[in-house]
Amino acid sequence: MQITVDLPDELALRLQNYQQELPDILELGLREFNARDRVGFEGMAEVLEFLAQLPQPEEILALRPSQQLQTHIDRLLEKNRTTGLTAMEEQQWEQYQYLEHLVRVAKTEALLKLKAEKEVTRVTLLG
Questions:
Q1: Residues 106 and 51: beta-carbon distance below 8 Å
Q2: How far apart are the C-alpha atoms of 15 and 112, rounded to whole Å?
């Protein structure tokens, strides 16, 4: 199928070198566009984008959920204790648990990296 789209000149120039990849670019952009309003992705993108930047170990260890994400998690926990979660909320909870698992893995790796760096420094100083 062929679609004609009017674009601002600046965007058209930027896309000129990516003509072959336009279907992939549109697909990825559409996924992100659709995900931004989904409740299940609320707060998760921020954490994943942070980790995708390959931060320093100290930055990873300092990572904490945003106030918005923490409030949402607290609300789900309270609802689970009182009335129970809907199927959608249960799915959200599972996504948050997986996100927490990824952050724990990143923090563990950060600690190991810092420990290894200290060992190298100590050996260098003693050697």
A1: yes
A2: 42
Q: Token pair 């930047």 is at which residue?
A: 53
Q: How many degrees, rounded to 5, is the angle at CA 52 between CA 7 and CA 50? A: 95
Please answer whether residues 63 and 47 qualify as being in contact, where contact means their C-beta atoms are separated by less than 8 angstroms.
yes
Alpha carbons 31 and 23: distance in angstroms, whole number: 12
Q: pLDDT of 24-74, one tens digit each?
A: 888 877 766 665 555 556 678 888 889 989 999 999 999 999 898 899 899
d(CA 51, CA 82): 34
Question: What is the distance between the alpha carbons of residues 91 and 105, in angstroms, rounded to a whole number?
Answer: 21
> Is residue 100 included in any domain, yes or no?
yes
Domain-located, residue 111: yes
Domain enclosing residue 59, as ranges = 42-126
How confident is the model at residue 107, as a pLDDT?
A: 95
Q: Look up residue 46 and give its two tokens.
A: 């921020």
